[in-house]
Design brief:
Layout: H1 10-20, H2 29-36, E1 40-45, E2 48-54, H3 60-76, H4 78-89, H5 94-112, H6 118-125
Antiparallel strand pairs: 1-2
């Protein structure tokens, strides 16, 4: 099922399936992003306002395994290509776009690996993309 997503190969699916865990344990896109360690973390100290970076919690293999498919999907998946163009128009940097695409790939993989069917898949695939983009 995962290989039906443009940009996800059999090798990537074999890496991600054990890394993603139980798809039914997630209630939304933000939880999936946090599980993958791709959620934003603010670097602030007192009055000093730092920049936001990814939290990097969770498995390094999961993040590395999502990066290359995310880059591939930016060129082959029409929905992800449109997301990339929207983020570029909003002035986002290349790494921010790549991270946002990684989050969306993780959400798609989690939704497609759900064995029970439509309920979680429908809610995640049709979620507002602002829920998974920072």
């Amino acid at each position: 099922m995962l290989t039906s997503i443009p940009g996800i190969s059999a090798k990537t699916a074999a890496l991600l399936l054990p890394e993603l865990g139980d798809p039914l344990s997630f209630t939304g896109a933000r939880e999936i992003a946090a599980f993958a360690g791709l959620n934003p973390k603010l670097a602030e100290l007192g009055e000093h306002k730092g920049s936001a970076h990814i939290s990097r919690t969770g498995s390094v293999r999961r993040r590395v395994g999502l990066y290359v498919p995310a880059i591939v999907t930016m060129t082959h998946n029409p929905a992800i290509k449109a997301l990339r163009q929207r983020l570029q128009q909003r002035g986002k940097a290349g790494k921010q776009i790549a991270c946002a695409v990684c989050v969306n790939c993780c959400i798609l993989c989690t939704a497609c690996s759900n064995p029970t069917g439509r309920s979680i898949r429908h809610s995640l695939l049709h979620a507002n993309t602002r829920d998974c983009i920072y």
